[in-house]
């Protein structure tokens, strides 16, 4: 049976290009960058076409090698997949465009391998999302993680150690996931997600299934850096090269969140994950801890990138809180937040990369007068920051809105309070930075001389950095304004019908 | 008692896994941590392979051509190949993880001239 | 890191053994699709033969026979062969890695096309595994300096 | 009520938004062009909004839907009489304040003027958007835009004090916004709808106690912007901002938006029936009465002119909310027309304060001896505004206060009648000394000759002061504030 080849092409295009790059790199090193751009462009194109096809005709199944499930590996692209695929490939495309100058500056002699591993990482991420097979998911998870370890390790001083810790934690997470797969396999004899979801309901009271589910949740929580298991994230993302953080920070953890939603609501049915086992309430409270911890710890940071890493911990908490509340509104919020967060984090980390590229510092207190030097970059930073704070027309607000509605519906007032408090904490967080950038405190006596450090003139980041930042920034606004449309067309189909 | 003895393979894998886990958490030397990680992963492989074990069964290959006399055709006659295949893939993944981790350790060693975690932390402070 | 001494017995034995090891590796690769063996195991053996060369002589000798550049190219080539065969299937109108469709290209019937397709895959896997083995060994043995010569 | 589908509300919004970005991109290099954009945008916005007045007066409602936000909630504009009052006020005074700002900013050679004009335009965008919103979520969106865009204006001076004031401003308003968001979420959860309905839509949803909670979280949220007493502290601090900004904060956009939102909640979310049923109106009324009196007493003690005006603003805002909370027809009408009338009078006062600052760099009342002789136009306008706020007849403040008092009597609440009267007395007690100081005290320095601020500064002051008087004689002049307030009141109370 042949069907639309897009699901496999999305994964295969970056994979093969990844291995062409070293070969081409030796021949002509300058060709690497165009090749990466080209392949990711096709990747984005295919994933958008897939999304379109899914919206029009429903779920796409693709059987690798023509083997039908449950024997062969199946790629299933439904609304949730297609949407996340489009977002991730879109982001990685623009981060790749952005990477040129930054990589030339930070890693001048590793360009060839950088791009090869970059594409491998994208392959892994897209594979995780596209596949419909539990074990295949594990393989892609490890491909993505391995590429991430390598990319993080080439960062600045503390990077190798941070990366090593990430290796240890990530491997444990992956092993737990694999154990979960093993347990499910011995009770059902299947690895296919759709097949499993049909076989499992009869076994819901088996302890083995319960243990498998627990292993899944712990493993995935490690990979997505949910609160008590987030420690690897901070150092790793802080010390990674700018481009790498800009790619990994938005995507990796969000893909983890996607896997969690997939396992909880596709492989296991909602009536198992919600009613038979108190996992949702555990998740909810962990998420509360994550949000508060992340936001408060972020306040204590003077390194902009590290602060954003704590913000990621909090943002993951948002997604987890939505899954933890587990009603329709909250899930819409959680899935919307996956998308929004990819954009917001990409935007902020890209801006940080541009700041580092231009000034070489990430210290919040050394950013003064930067709005004179990098006016556009800073404007985009403000957009991203306000979105994280949750100012309405920007996308960050809408996911928060749905989460709050969901929490109301579930009668979980504490969650509502936490969501609101966290947006206040975020406001403190980002306005502290904005204030440092934009306001130029001076002695009152100089208040009216109309002067200031006029010597600082505009010295914007190069165009190859500005365009991606601009696109992502515009994306934040558009995602916000059209969030209702997105939910109508895509997200509402991703919610399991029994919720 | 029967619970323990009859499922000895699971117990072994759990014990191995915990040894590995202990090494990851308890040891300060990075290489020992790595070894712990490997034990952890190996325990997993053992677990998978042992689930597929079957007494008196043969390999799931239909020999042909070279005058084969016996085929294992019924499922009871051969061991389940799938866990082995999965583990083959998992081993590759684990070897690559191991390789990456070793490369990282070399980088760390070059930078700090030590592999003891507390000394590294002291050096970075 | 490897001690720089030369032992005539070891070196001679290795010189005798290595061709046979490599031949055996090729056999394992070539028979992977219908008997125990395959690209993975064969690739490992092939890689091991080079590692043996390194151990018996020194790394320079091994690098002379298998330069790093060539090694990386082999590594990439393997994956490209693998993926390429899949893409060829895709182009011919079947699913990815559905080798049966290769009968359109090759003068064989469908089952044989399947068999040949898998053989192609095994060869690709063999290349990559061999290159990866050598690369890991060289990296570790040179405590990471190997990669610096790659630029 | 009949709805008309028209793109005008969107056009009005776009005019100010595009204007803002034109200002930003023109930048410091071409100042005249930049300020031309400001004026152009304000005039266009104002004229588009005015073009909608006749339709509203015909008893119709203008609607325009942009996009669906979540089930049952649209990003939507719906222009009714009450929204129209605020929209005309905000956009109309924008013209005056922009002209004044040009004079003020150039007069003082302020820094970062582009940022100033940009944020100003965005703030007006937010205020007009809030006025035209059809539902709570749209309202919240513009409310937040307004909050954020005002922050750089408050901290404009960038002195440590100004930055502190900016932080305080954000802390109060964003906390308030969190309360608002909570309330909006709860409203949606209880009713499944967020659309404003004259007379309220929460009736019959949720338990009484839950509705009481909802009402108070709403009031805390929007009250933070309307500076009701325990949460008013940011407003006097924000006086550190340039005078046109203070005018914006106090008369045009920010606090008025807070009051506007409060009134929207009182009359278009809850409605008089529910409120009297719940009994919360009385609590709110006592609360704001306290604010009315306290603010005036504190104002008496202030020497800084702008701080004194700030407390006067707190007082007037609470008067508006008190009127709305009394739930009687005249009180509602009075409070609604007090929004624009107070706007015109207060803007006059603030612009006067700014004008004095431009010319003499004086901020304290005690330094202003005899300043009226030096700046007769400014101080004349100041006198008109002060008389108006006290409620003395030839100025429009009398009309709104008259209706408020009538409303208190109608509601049979003599206490609140007393509150109105005492507050008027106290108004007199702190405004008249200023007038006395300005005109009758001997100037300290010996140059009492005529020396006015630049024409661009004085002209808007004279215009707004003139309008304050015109509105007394013809409350319906030009913009039909009175008719619209009457219409809105009738809709709320379900009469006619």
Which structural traits does this protein have?
heterotetramer; B: 125 residues; mainly alpha; Helix Hairpins; 5 helices; 69% helix; 0% strand; C: 151 residues; 70% helix
List the helices and strands and how they pair.
The complex is a heterotetramer of chains A (499), B (125), C (151) and D (496).
Chain A: H1 6-27, H2 32-57, E1 60-63, E2 74-77, H3 79-106, H4 111-130, H5 134-153, H6 159-188, H7 193-199, H8 207-224, H9 231-239, H10 242-267, H11 270-276, H12 279-299, H13 304-325, H14 328-359, H15 370-373, H16 375-389, H17 395-409, H18 413-438, H19 463-481, H20 483-494
Antiparallel strand pairs in A: 1-2
Helix pairs in contact in A: 1-2, 1-4, 2-3, 2-4, 3-4, 3-10, 3-14, 3-19, 4-5, 4-10, 5-6, 5-10, 6-8, 6-9, 8-10, 9-13, 10-13, 10-14, 12-13, 12-18, 13-14, 13-17, 13-18, 14-16, 14-17, 14-19, 16-18, 16-19, 17-18, 17-19
Chain C: H1 8-30, H2 39-56, H3 59-65, H4 68-92, H5 110-141
Chain D: E1 2-5, H1 8-26, H2 31-57, E2 60-70, E3 73-79, H3 81-108, H4 113-132, H5 136-154, H6 160-191, H7 208-226, H8 234-237, H9 243-252, H10 254-278, H11 280-301, H12 305-326, H13 329-360, H14 371-374, H15 376-390, H16 397-410, H17 414-440, H18 455-473, H19 481-493
Parallel strand pairs in D: 1-2
Antiparallel strand pairs in D: 2-3
Helix pairs in contact in D: 1-2, 1-4, 2-3, 3-4, 3-9, 3-13, 3-18, 3-19, 4-5, 4-10, 5-6, 5-10, 6-7, 7-10, 9-10, 9-13, 10-12, 11-12, 11-17, 12-13, 12-17, 13-15, 13-16, 13-18, 13-19, 15-17, 15-18, 16-17
Supply the number of structural domains of chain B.
Answer: 1
Order of helices and strands of chain B: HHHHH
> Would you tell me the overall average pLDDT of chain A?
86
SSE string of chain A, helix = H, strand = E? HHEEHHHHHHHHHHHHHHHHHH
Judging by the overall fold, what is the CATH architecture of chain B?
Orthogonal Bundle
Q: Enumerate the spans of chain B where pLDDT stays under 50 for 5 or more consecutive residues.
A: none
| Molecular shape of chain B | elongated
Share in helix of chain B: 55-70%
Sequence stretches where pLDDT stays below 50 over 5 or more residues of chain A: 444-451
């Amino acid at each position: 049976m042949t069907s639309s080849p897009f699901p496999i092409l999305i994964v295969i295009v970056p994979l093969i290009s990844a291995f062409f790059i070293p070969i081409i790199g030796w021949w002509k090193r300058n060709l690497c960058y165009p090749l990466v751009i080209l392949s990711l462009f096709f990747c984005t194109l295919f994933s958008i076409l897939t999304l379109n096809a899914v919206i029009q005709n429903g779920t796409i199944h693709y059987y690798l090698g023509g083997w039908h499930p449950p024997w062969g590996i199946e790629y299933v692209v439904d609304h949730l997949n297609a949407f996340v695929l489009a977002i991730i490939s879109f982001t990685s495309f623009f981060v790749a465009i952005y990477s040129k100058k930054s990589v030339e500056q930070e890693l001048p002699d590793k360009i060839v391998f950088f791009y090869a591993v970059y594409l491998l990482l994208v392959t892994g991420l897209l594979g995780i999302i596209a596949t419909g097979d539990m074990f295949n998911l594990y393989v892609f998870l490890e491909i993505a993680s391995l590429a991430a370890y390598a990319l993080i390790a080439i960062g600045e001083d503390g990077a190798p150690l941070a990366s090593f810790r990430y290796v240890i934690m990530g491997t444990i997470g992956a092993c737990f996931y694999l154990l979960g797969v093993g347990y499910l396999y011995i009770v059902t004899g299947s690895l296919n997600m759709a097949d499993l979801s049909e076989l499992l309901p009869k076994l819901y009271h088996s302890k083995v299934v319960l243990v498998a589910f627990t292993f899944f949740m712990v493993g995935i929580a490690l990979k997505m850096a949910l609160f008590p298991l987030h420690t690897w994230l901070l150092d790793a993302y802080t010390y990674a090269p700018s481009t790498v953080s800009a790619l990994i920070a938005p995507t990796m953890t969000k893909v983890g969140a996607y896997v969690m939603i997939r396992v909880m609501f596709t492989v296991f049915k909602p009536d198992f994950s919600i009613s038979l086992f108190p996992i949702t309430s555990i998740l909810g409270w962990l998420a509360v801890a994550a949000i508060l911890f992340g936001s408060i710890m972020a306040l204590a940071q003077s390194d902009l990138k590290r602060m954003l890493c704590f913000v990621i911990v909090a943002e993951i908490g948002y997604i987890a809180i939505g899954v933890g509340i587990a009603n329709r509104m909250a899930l819409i919020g959680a899935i919307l937040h996956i998308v929004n967060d990819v954009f917001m984090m990409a935007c902020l980390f890209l801006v940080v990369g541009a700041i580092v590229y231009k000034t070489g510092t990430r210290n919040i207190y050394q950013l003064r007068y930067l709005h004179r030097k990098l006016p556009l970059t800073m404007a985009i930073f403000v957009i991203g920051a306000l979105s994280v704070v949750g100012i309405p027309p920007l996308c960050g607000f809408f996911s928060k809105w749905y989460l709050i509605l969901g929490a109301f519906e579930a009668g979980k007032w504490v969650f509502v309070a936490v969501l609101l408090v966290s947006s206040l904490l975020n406001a403190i967080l980002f306005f502290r930075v904005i204030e440092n950038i934009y306001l130029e405190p001076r002695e009152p006596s100089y208040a009216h001389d109309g002067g200031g450090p006029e010597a600082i003139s505009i010295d914007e980041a190069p165009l190859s950095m500005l365009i991606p930042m601009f696109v992502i920034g515009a994306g934040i606004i558009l995602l916000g304004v059209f969030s209702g449309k997105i939910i109508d067309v895509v997200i509402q189909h991703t919610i399991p019908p029994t919720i | 008692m029967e619970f323990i003895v009859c499922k000895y393979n699971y117990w072994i894998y759990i014990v191995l896994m915990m040894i590995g886990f202990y090494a990851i958490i308890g040891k300060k030397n990075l290489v020992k941590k790595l070894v712990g990680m490997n034990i952890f992963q190996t325990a997993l492989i053992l677990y998978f392979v042992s689930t597929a074990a079957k007494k008196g069964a043969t390999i799931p290959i239909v020999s042909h051509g070279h005058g084969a006399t016996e085929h294992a055709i019924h499922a009871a006659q051969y061991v389940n190949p799938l866990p082995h295949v999965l583990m083959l893939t998992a081993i590759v993944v684990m070897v690559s993880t191991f390789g990456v981790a070793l490369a990282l350790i070399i980088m760390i060693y070059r930078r700090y001239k030590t592999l003891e975690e507390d000394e590294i932390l002291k050096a970075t402070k | 890191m490897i001690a720089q001494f030369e032992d005539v017995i070891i070196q001679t034995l290795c010189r005798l053994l290595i061709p046979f090891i490599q031949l055996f590796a090729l056999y394992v690769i070539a028979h992977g699709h219908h008997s125990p063996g395959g690209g993975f195991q064969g690739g490992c053996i092939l890689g091991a033969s080079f590692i043996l060369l390194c151990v018996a002589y020194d790394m320079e000798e091994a690098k002379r026979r298998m330069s790093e550049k060539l090694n990386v190219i082999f590594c990439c080539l393997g994956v490209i062969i693998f993926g390429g065969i899949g893409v060829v299937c895709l182009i011919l109108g079947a699913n990815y890695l559905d080798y049966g469709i290769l009968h359109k290209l090759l003068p064989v019937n469908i089952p044989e096309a399947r068999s040949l397709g898998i053989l192609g895959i095994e060869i690709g896997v063999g290349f990559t595994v061999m290159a990866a083995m050598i690369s890991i060994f060289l990296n570790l043995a040179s405590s990471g300096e190997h990669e610096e010569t790659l630029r | 009520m009949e709805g008309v589908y028209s793109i005008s509300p969107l056009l009005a919004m776009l005019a100010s938004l595009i204007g803002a970005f034109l200002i930003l991109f023109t930048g410091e290099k071409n100042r005249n062009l930049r300020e031309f954009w400001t004026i152009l945008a304000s005039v266009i916005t104002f004229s588009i909004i005015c073009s909608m007045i006749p339709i509203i007066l015909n008893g119709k409602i203008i609607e325009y839907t942009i996009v669906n936000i979540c089930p049952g909630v649209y990003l939507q504009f719906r222009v009714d009489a009450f929204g129209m009052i605020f929209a005309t006020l905000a956009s109309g005074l924008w013209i005056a304040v922009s002209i004044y700002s040009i004079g003020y900013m150039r007069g003082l050679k302020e820094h970062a003027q582009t940022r100033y004009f940009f944020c100003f335009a965005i703030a007006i965008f937010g205020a007009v958007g809030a006025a035209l919103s059809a539902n709570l979520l749209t309202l919240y969106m513009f409310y937040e835009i307004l909050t954020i865009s005002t922050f750089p204006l408050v901290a404009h001076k960038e002195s440590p004090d100004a930055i502190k004031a900016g932080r305080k401003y954000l802390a109060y308003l964003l906390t308030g916004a969190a309360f608002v968001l909570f309330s909006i979420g709860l409203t949606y959860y209880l009713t499944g709808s967020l659309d404003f309905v004259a007379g309220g839509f929460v009736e019959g949803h949720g338990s009484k106690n839950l509705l009481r909670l909802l009402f108070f979280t709403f009031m805390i949220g929007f009250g933070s912007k309307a500076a009701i007493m325990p949460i008013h502290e940011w407003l006097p601090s924000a006086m550190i901002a340039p005078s046109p900004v203070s005018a914006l904060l106090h008369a045009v956009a920010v606090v008025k938006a807070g009051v506007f939102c409060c009134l929207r909640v009182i009359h278009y979310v809850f409605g008089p029936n529910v409120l009297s049923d719940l009994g919360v109106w009385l609590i709110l009324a006592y609360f704001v009465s306290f604010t009315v009196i306290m603010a005036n007493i504190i104002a008496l003690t202030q020497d800084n002119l702008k701080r004194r005006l700030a407390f006067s603003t707190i007082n007037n805002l609470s008067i508006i909310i008190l009127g709305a909370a009394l739930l009687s027809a005249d009180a509602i009408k009075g409070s609604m027309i007090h929004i624009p009338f107070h706007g015109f009078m207060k803007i006059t006062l603030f612009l006067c304060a700014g004008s004095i600052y431009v010319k003499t760099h004086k901020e304290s009342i005690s330094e202003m001896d005899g300043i009226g002789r030096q700046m007769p136009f400014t101080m004349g306008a100041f006198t008109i505004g002060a008389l108006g706020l006290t409620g003395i007849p030839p100025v429009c403040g009398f009309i709104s206060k008259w209706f408020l008092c009538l409303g208190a009597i109608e509601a049979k609440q003599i206490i609140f009648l007393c509150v109105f009267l005492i507050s008027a007395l106290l108004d007199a007690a702190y405004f008249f000394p200023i007038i006395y100081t300005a005109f009758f005290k001997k100037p300290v320095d010996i140059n009492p000759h005529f020396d006015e601020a630049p024409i661009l500064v004085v002209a808007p002051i004279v215009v707004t002061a003139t309008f304050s008087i015109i509105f007394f004689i013809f409350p319906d002049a030009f913009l039909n504030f009175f008719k619209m307030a009457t219409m809105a009141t009738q809709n709320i109370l379900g009469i006619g």
